[in-house]
Every structure is written in structure tokens, then in C-alpha cells.
Amino acid sequence: DIQMTQSPSSLSASVGDRITITCRASQSIRSFLNWYQQKPGKAPKVLIYGASSLQSGVPSRFSGSGSGTYFTLIVSSLQPEDFATYFCQQSYSSPWTFGQGTKVEIK
Amino acid sequence: QVQLVQSGAEVKKPGASVKVSCKVSGYSLTELSMHWVRQSPGKGLEWMGGFDPEDDETIYAQDFQGRVTMTEDTSTGTASMELSGLRSEDTAVYYCTVQRGFSYPFFAFWGQGTLVTVSS
After folding, report:
1. Average pLDDT in chain A
2. Which of A1, A49, A100 sits opposite B104 (nearest CB)?
């Protein structure tokens, strides 16, 4: 199975901050990398698919990059509604696997 | 827009089976690639299996092979996931989710989740 490792596991930030979350795959997954946001008690919501494509309706302050084994999610200017947990997920090969999550908290 | 509404919370004893349903609206179930993902504090998000549109078959994660069955009733637009031989580690929130983006697959639509608690 392909292991997905996110860092950091949590971070504290302020409204307006730029934050970066990284995701590493245990082997190359080309660009088969998706990012999700999850708020407490809710299902995950896709933000980015194919490593860098913004899902329809997602604000442009979210962006993704990377290929192979190293990927990043950037939030350019954190908004109050962005405090949540973020997950990466690979869809390159079965079983599709998720990172352990990065919790973004208010500083 | 696809909407997915799941069945309610369940409490089961070890060794029992549970069946979670997912009612689809907005699209025909035959047009969708349905998957199941669970989430627990211990193991995080785990993909359990789903419909592979390239091979036109349902595939299961190895970790659940032999214990999980995913079915679809197209007459009612309802997908179901049955997990047998329950153990305490199966306590989790179970989600149905629809795959989109067949070039770069991702989970675009999600049910609200069903909490399954396994306890003696």
C-alpha cells in the first residue's frame, strides 16, 4: 500500500496568514493527489484534485502543487472558515489511501 | 447535484454484522461510481472499496476482503455496505462517497456519515 505522510500534524495560525501543508507519498503517484477539508462532525470536502486543479466553488486562496512523491497545499490568506482539518489522498493505485490529517487551529 | 443520505447510527455486538445504506438523489445510481470510506480515531480515513468504472466491477480493499459486501439497488437508488464479523476496531463513522474525475479520480460528494459502535 502507498503510505501518505502529512506535515505538520497540527499548526496554529492567525486570520490572514499564509499556511503550507505538505504531503509525501511512499512512492511516486504522479499527480494523483487530492486535498480535502473536514470540519468537526462533517464529511470531508474536496478542495484540490489532480494535485493542482481547484474544485468548482472552492475559493482561489487554496492552491495545490507537486508531483511524484511531494505535494503542497497552500492557503494564501487564512479566513475564519478555514480552521479545519486537511487531508491528502492518493488515487494512483488501490487501495486509495489518506494522510493522517493536519489540524489548523486559531492562534 | 448529487445528494447522499445515509441510514442512522447503529450499535452492534462483536461478531455481528451491520448494513449501512446510502440513498442517492439528483442522479441515477447507474451513472455513479460509489465508494465507502470509514473514519476512526485510531486509523483515520480508510477507503474500504467501491465501483471501478474502468473495469466495471466493485473492488474491495484487502483489509476488508471477505468481510465487506457493497451492493446497489437501482430500483430505489440505494447503495449499501455490509460489514460482518464486527470487532471493536470497526467502531467508526462510515461514509458513502461518489467518485468523479475519471482522469484524476477524487471523492466529490459525500453522505453525512453513519456512526457504527461495536461494543459488548
Report:
1. 97
2. A49
